[in-house]
From TrEMBL:
Gene3D superfamilies tied to this protein: 2-enoyl-CoA Hydratase, Chain A, domain 1
Positions of the UniProt region annotated as Disordered: 230-268
Keywords linked to the UniProt accession: Cytoplasm, Hydrolase, Protease, Serine protease
Name the UniProt record assigns to this protein: ATP-dependent Clp protease proteolytic subunit
NCBIfam families according to UniProt: Clp_rel_HeadMat (NF045542)
Record-linked InterPro entries: ClpP (IPR001907), ClpP/crotonase-like_dom_sf (IPR029045), ClpP/TepA (IPR023562)
Classification via CDD domains: S14_ClpP_1 (cd07016)
Bias kind Pro residues: ranges: 236-265
Family of this protein: Belongs to the peptidase S14 family.
SUPFAM superfamilies: ClpP/crotonase
Amino acid sequence: MKPMDPAALAAAETVEHEITLEADTGSLTALAPTAGPAEIELFGVVGIDFTARDVRRALTAVAGRDLVVRVNSIGGLVTEGFAIFNAIARHEGRKVIAIEGQACSSAAFIAMAGDEIVMPQASLMMIHNASGGAHGNTETMESVLAVLRKIDGIQADVFAARTGQDRARVAELLAAETYFTAEEAVSLGFADRIENREAVQAAALVNLEDIMARAGGQSVAFRTAPTAHITAQGPATPPAPPAPATPPTGAAPPTPPAPAAPPASQPTAVATIQDLRAMVTQARGAVSADWALDLAAEGVTVAEARSRLIDAMAARQPQRPEGGIQITQDERDTFRGALEDALMYRMGGGQPTERARPLLGRSAMELARASIEAAGGKPAKFGHDTLRLAGAAMNLSSDFRAEAGMHTTSDFPVVLGNAARRTLLGAYAQVPQNWRQISQPENFEDFRKKQFLKLSGTPQLERIGEHGEFKYGTLSEGAEGFGIDTWGKIFAFTRQLLINDDLGALARAMRERGSSAGRTISARVWALVNNGHIGTGANKVIMSDGKAVFHADHKNLAASGTDITDAAMEAAYLAFAQQVDENGEPIDITPRTLVVGPTRAATARKFLGTGPNASGVPNIYQGDLQLIVEPRITTNAWFLFADPPLRDGLAVGFLNGREEPRLEEKAGWNVEGVEFKVALDFDAGWLDYRVAYRNPGN
């Protein structure tokens, strides 16, 4: 590792001590075999899947030993990255950083703490400036900008010290959000070597042949004494011997060694043909063999060659689009998803997921702390004042957020609402919805009474002669219709419930309200069935002709109540067959569903399940009717309904077609907590009496 600038290291430690998170996942362990280096895996999001406290604890367990740190991370919280960088840099023992897949953002910064950085051919590194957000006045925004500029400056100092690059060049790479392949990272000093180097050297030799062919007579001189040829133009600093490499633990047995490559020159040394050859290979088409020959003729140093390589690569980098996706948004989404899964698990409504693993086992208050930290705040500032900490997590006051130093609002209420919503809808889906077998859902665009269209005139198609004329059929508003209303309740999840770790109260409330929403629809539909018969009272359902739904004039009411018998069922089927439309034409519908209450359930099952009688006559109703036993029908009456898609009859309307309850959350005013409002926009109504038949029973 190149000497680290003490000022840069001190600056990183200052920021770490000022604003780093105080959290741990409890999931990071160090592998410490009896022989060879110890090993730590930093996989996932910095500050969420692993924290500085995790790393410090793991390093303490292997103090003084050589270490391999395997990294595969998109990055994460920058100050956590500073703290992890410092912890690894202070570790006594040789440190090898192995980039297993990617080291992006703060993970790339962490990698700079290694004495040696190793990247496989199939790996990436990315560096960029810090990102963040805030909500507040100009002073707040300027304060956040000042912090971001400090972080960017620290990154530039550390990357420049580690790579030997000019600080201004590093700042340009950070601002451009630059991705490096393994070859590019090694070429620019962000990594020290590539795993499976033999394959890379073979590719480099192919490019060298191209250089030699273009160099003509110089090729022999390059192959026999490249250093003497170049140093004739100026003194060169002898190359330092390379540090011994420690292969990562568990690596495959090495292949027979190839001839050792010449040691890399120092940045101040004149670039050898080996240096330039490697740059041509690693640039992947950004520069050519002619570029290498031109620089060799000029006698440029390694640092100058790298600087020109950066310019050439930057010219080929695509411009970032305005408003492009920021890594910080991905991190925030990752945290939200993990927090939501953890809350669902705590509320008894889900299985533990991999992304929620670091948060499982934490109390509600610990999850609230994590949400404050994810918003850039320091929950430690509240000390033991759990009420104010809970208020900050619930966004109850901007004063709480300011006191915590949060850059933006907490995600806790939103994520809590998402978990509550999943619980609500899960309970709603479990409620039996047998009303769907006798009614048809309808879409309403507003709350006004809706008159449903009907076809006027003769509905049948008419014969058209050779020169005949087609006649128009018209649609007009039917006489029947209904409007919808809003049904709902409010539940408050208070700070006290959060502090008491009573997520179960919220889960119970959402399950009860989800079930209640399903039962409310069923109760409304079956009330229309029960109250659609002849009787008195405000609940009696009257059609537009002034008569009850089930009425003798509608030919859908038995003359007298009977049990479910062959004769009674035959009379019901005959009533369906005799129904006609407004023009006196048969509507051709038959019963599909038999509906009874609990008092007639056994009779109905026996009737539908009976086989042929003693004379061998089959039960013609067996398999022809489906049975609904509805507890809201408390009399001995029984009903027959046609299949809903055949003709509009009993309808259930939903606003904008949304058939499930909606959940809204906001910071409470009358209570100190988050208020959850469960609402359902719907109602039901009769559109046609011809689709149903009622027998009062006996």
